[in-house]
From TrEMBL, chain A:
GO terms for molecular function: metallopeptidase activity. NCBIfam families: PRK11040.1. Belongs to the peptidase U62 family. This is Microcin-processing peptidase 1. It comes from Modicisalibacter xianhensis. Residues 237-445 form the Metalloprotease TldD/E C-terminal domain. Residues 33-97 form the Metalloprotease TldD/E N-terminal domain. Residues 125-230 form the Metalloprotease TldD/E central domain. InterPro entries: Metalloprtase-TldD/E_C (IPR045569), Metalloprtase-TldD/E_cen_dom (IPR045570), Metalloprtase-TldD/E_N (IPR002510), PmbA (IPR047657), TldD/PmbA_N (IPR035068), TldD/PmbA_sf (IPR036059). Pfam families: PmbA_TldD_1st, PmbA_TldD_2nd, PmbA_TldD_3rd. GO terms for biological process: proteolysis. GO terms for cellular component: cytosol.
TrEMBL record, chain B:
Belongs to the peptidase U62 family. NCBIfam families: PRK10735.1. The lineage of its organism: Bacteria, Pseudomonadati, Pseudomonadota, Gammaproteobacteria, Oceanospirillales. This is Microcin-processing peptidase 2. Pfam families: PmbA_TldD_1st (PF01523), PmbA_TldD_2nd (PF19290), PmbA_TldD_3rd (PF19289). Residues 248-481 form the Metalloprotease TldD/E C-terminal domain.
């Protein structure tokens, strides 16, 4: 059931269609134009209780065009990157540009910012995996988890593997493509006692299948994570230090990045407006972006505007050193693009790291949070209030699981009160970080 | 009376099949490809959608976009196994290829005799129109500019206004091996206004919006731009005065309408058939038992006219229905699609939904709400010595296995000695579904539905939904403020 996918041929095809669309827009009278096209293909299998549950083959296309007529713009997109639908989309975008209002900041990124070097960043590693092999891996993963005593039910294990091509071109003459792959294996298990049921999961997600964690290790870890939640109590309400597990600390980095993104800043929808040069984190903390790291999750030589990507330092010794800007948001702020159309790529932290055990000892009494729920983050004010689950810490050691409580504060204070960073760095996503210990949050429980 | 419009089925055939050189006859060989050996159910889901979006910022509509999506998803079931493939081409070749791929889930067994075709005759829950036509581009821009003017005129502290107008025209058709042949034309529109207000060094956001399954012109006729602009400004101004919210357990009064997100999270997801078949829901095996306080009656209702969550037929072709979930506190029903209904020995309830042809259907909510009670909303407030009155929410989430759910208030007030007093900052509320529903002690007579803004996410698929409830009192729930 595997499908052939010739990434190089797909890239050549998309490049020729993007070039044709740019030419068509020029002929129809567009002063400038940009076009993105993509094709992705993948296989996904899910197993549950030792049986196959779903087998899914996906093949997605996407195509988006933006035309500029004077200072007006129009956009159109389609799930079909075929010649006819591209032609129709360009015409539709031109029609829309007759109605939109003038925008002095509108237009392509400046020509001198276009990427000119395209090193192979090793993010494309196809996996020629048959459906049967994918099922075997998922079954082995779930079986390893279910073999752990105490696991009573399963939400299943899943393997997904895919690759794709993205092409971007604009009327500066920029035309480039990027091939990439993504493979992941995950498992979610359930355990129950007289108090009720709990579930938890673990996963591995990689560019290169050779780096995928073993099915057995994922299954076992999912089981352990599930079992340790049984017998949870509710913590008392009070002001306490909170430790965020690495995958949740990456979310805090995400809140920071959203707040220094140009789009939030020019809309005044950020708690970090007019914050350049101001202290936000302790002076031992530096946060940067490495978009050209070889083999990393979010590596790319150019951003969604075609602008070259470069190493950016966002927090330098605790102070805000740069915003995160696309061509448009930069113009709105009277600044220059930082190559961040589409977001940050490969965020890394430089700070002294400690073992989790050492961090817990310093915390002494508080909560270790391993799950957050809900959307209670106000990007305009930085106010933060979310549902949580995790572990009660007393005398520097984990005592018992806790659940059904909230943690609350304001991101300005939370960042300033960052008291320590763990060496338990999670490298699965675009943001690499270990645990964060934050002093002085409000825990609301029973 | 003369029938001027085509039936949904005729329109679907013309829209979905004709461009690829197919007609209704082509559905039969298409289905045959998916009905390989050992397959006990198969369906073809055709979809085409046209989506339009106009966005105003800085007083100008500077951004507008148009999207066309479409294709066919083919599903083959064998026992609990599902094979699935899709294509963005609706052609004979694509049907053959996706059908064979999907039916590869089973490799042996007998070939199913398909049932004779029954064309769905479900009553229409909305008019099958293209909601994008009817207003010119100038009309749409004028509506957004009106929202901008009204918001800026409402208060000098308003510093930013953004407004968006979106509309979707969707045509779907389902042909299944159980004889189903159904089509649906689904309009969906929405207007949203968001403002930033700044005063005394503080900055706050307010937002409001709404819509439903009707023409964009109705938003204009009902003065949606003006109403939502004023409401967004009002909310931002309230939040500019907000003090830190309290932390800990206390009584909470929820306003009518959109706070019904409580029901969506606390009970709705936990009553979806798939989680109960798998035994992964905190409500599994509790049919017939008390799961909420007496007086609490909750339904899922796809049959409401023109509502955002309504469906004439679901994405498996089953007519949309009124499904009681909890009656006077007792669990009486699950929401089902065909797969889970069959495996649980129940009937489908018209709750099968999918984000698109490229996604698998699963049991989902439509419009979920609590029926009105007897209490006067004023008496409910008066009954609280110290607590919170929450009237608007940003969103929620639930862990269906442990039953823990959260929802985050975006407009709330302190209740002190039976009176609504100071506004408090947004805070997350957390509880356990069955436990929280057991603590509903007063139910207002003011049942209201939300304005048409909900999007529900499950396993990465988003679908439009509605919620509603009367004013109600929870005797105790944890409020996640900062003042302990």
């Amino acid at each position: 059931m595997t499908q052939a996918f010739d990434a190089a041929a797909q890239q050549a095809l998309l490049e020729s269609r993007v070039a044709a669309a740019l030419e068509q827009a020029r002929k129809l009278g567009a002063d400038a134009c940009e076009v993105g096209a993509s094709v992705d293909q993948g296989t996904g299998v899910n197993v549950r209780l030792g049986e196959v549950e779903t087998v899914e083959l996906s093949r997605d296309q996407g195509f988006a065009v933006t035309v500029y007529v004077g200072k007006r713009k129009g956009s159109a997109s389609s799930s079909d990157a075929g010649e006819d639908s591209i032609r129709a989309a360009v015409e539709k975008a031109m029609a829309i540009a007759r109605y939109t209002g003038e925008d002095p900041a509108s237009g392509l990124a400046d020509a001198e910012l276009m990427a000119t070097e395209f090193p192979d960043l090793k993010v494309h590693h196809p996996w020629h995996l048959s459906t049967d092999e994918a099922i075997e891996l998922a079954l082995a993963c779930e079986a390893a988890g279910r073999a752990v005593p105490g696991i009573t039910n399963s939400d299943g294990a899943g393997l997904s593997s895919g690759e794709g091509v993205r092409v971007y071109g604009n009327s500066h003459g920029f035309l480039a493509g990027l091939k990439g792959s993504r493979h992941s294996l995950s498992c979610m298990l359930i355990a129950g006692d007289e108090q009720g049921m709990q579930r938890d999961y673990d996963y591995s997600s990689v560019r290169d299948p050779a780096l995928l964690a073993s099915p057995e290790s994922i299954g076992k870890s999912a089981a352990e994570r599930t079992l340790r939640r049984l017998g949870a109590r509710r913590p008392a309400t009070g002001r306490l230090p909170v430790m965020f597990a690495p995958e949740l600390a990456a979310g805090l980095v995400g809140h920071f990045l959203n707040a220094i993104a140009g789009g939030a800043l020019y809309r005044e929808a950020s708690f970090l407006c007019d914050s350049l040069g101001k202290p936000l984190f302790p002076d031992w903390f530096t946060l940067m972006e490495r978009p050209r790291e070889v083999g990393a999750m979010a590596s790319a030589p150019f951003d969604n505007d075609g602008v070259y990507t470069r190493d950016n330092v966002y927090i330098d010794s605790g102070r805000i050193a740069s915003y995160m800007l696309s061509a448009y948001s930069a113009r709105r702020l009277g600044m220059t693009s930082t190559g961040n159309a589409g977001g940050a790529r490969n965020v890394r932290i430089e700070a002294p790291l400690e073992s989790q055990q050492h961090l817990l000892a310093r915390m002494d009494r508080g909560v270790l949070v391993t799950e957050l729920m809900g959307q209670g983050v106000n990007g305009v004010t930085g106010d933060y209030s979310r549902g949580a689950a995790g572990f009660w810490v007393e005398n520097g050691e984990i005592q018992y699981p806790v659940e059904e409580f909230t943690i609350a504060g304001n991101l300005n204070d939370m960042f300033a009160n960052l008291a320590g960073l763990g060496d338990d760095v999670d490298t699965r996503g675009s943001v690499h970080t270990g645990s964060w210990l934050i002093d002085g949050m409000t825990v609301a429980g029973g | 009376m003369t029938q001027l419009t085509q039936s949904p089925l005729d329109e679907a055939i013309a829209t979905l099949l004709a461009p690829g050189g197919l007609d209704a006859e082509a559905l039969e060989p298409g289905l045959s490809h998916a009905l390989g050996p050992g397959i006990d159910y198969a369906d073809l889901y055709f979809q085409r959608s046209w989506h339009e979006s106009w966005v105003l910022e800085d007083g100008e509509v500077k951004d507008a976009s148009y999207n066309i999506d479409g294709g066919v998803g083919v599903r083959a079931l064998s026992g609990e196994k599902t094979g699935f493939a899709y294509s963005n081409q609706i052609t004979a070749e694509a049907l053959a290829e996706t059908g064979k791929t999907a039916s590869g889930i089973a490799r042996s067994g007998s070939c199913l005799d398909r049932k004779p075709v029954t064309v769905s005759s479900a009553p229409l829950r909305y008019t099958g129109i293209d909601p994008l036509s009817g207003l010119t581009a100038e009309d749409k821009i004028a509506m957004l500019k009106l929202a901008d003017r009204v918001a800026r005129a409402a208060d000098p502290s308003v510093s930013q206004v953004s407004a968006s107008l979106t509309g979707e025209h969707e045509v779907v058709m389902v042909r299944a091996s159980d004889g189903t042949l159904a089509a649906d034309i689904r309009p969906l529109v929405r207007l949203n206004v968001s403002v930033i207000a700044a005063k005394n060094g503080r900055r706050e956001r307010g937002s409001a919006g709404g819509g439903g399954r009707y023409a964009m012109s109705r938003l204009r006729d009902e003065n949606a731009a003006e109403r939502y602009a004023k409401e967004a400004v009002r909310q931002a101004l309230v939040n500019l005065e907000a003090v830190d919210a309290p932390a800990g357990q206390m009584p909470v009064v929820l306003g009518s309408g959109w706070p019904g997100i409580l029901l969506h999270e606390a009970v709705g997801h936990g009553l979806e058939g798939d989680f109960n078949r798998k035994g992964s829901s905190a409500f599994a095996g509790r049919m017939g038992q008390r799961v909420a306080a007496p007086g609490v009656t909750v339904v899922d209702d796809a049959t409401l006219d023109d509502r955002r969550g309504s469906m004439t037929v679901d994405d498996e072709g089953t007519p949309g229905a009124y499904t009681p979930l909890i009656e006077d506190g007792i669990l009486v029903g699950y929401m089902q699609d065909k797969l889970n209904a069959r495996l649980m020995g129940m009937a489908p309830t018209g709750n099968a939904r999918r984000e698109s042809y490229a996604h698998l259907p699963m049991p989902r909510m439509t419009n979920t709400y609590m029926l009105a009670g007897q209490d006067d909303p004023e008496d409910i407030i008066k009954s609280v010595k110290r607590g919170i009155y929450a009237v608007s929410f940003g969103g929620g989430q639930v862990d269906i296995t442990s039953g823990k759910f959260v929802f985050s208030a975006s407009e709330a007030y302190l209740i002190e000695d039976g009176r609504i007093t100071t506004p408090v900052k947004g805070a997350t509320l957390i509880g356990n579904g069955p436990e929280a529903m057991g603590r509903v002690s007063m139910i207002g007579h003011d049942m209201a539905l939300d304005t048409g803004i909900g999007v529900c996410g499950k396993e990465g698929q988003g679908v439009p939904v509605g919620v509603g409830q009367p004013t109600l009192k929870l005797d105790e729930i944890t409020v996640g403020g900062t003042q302990s």
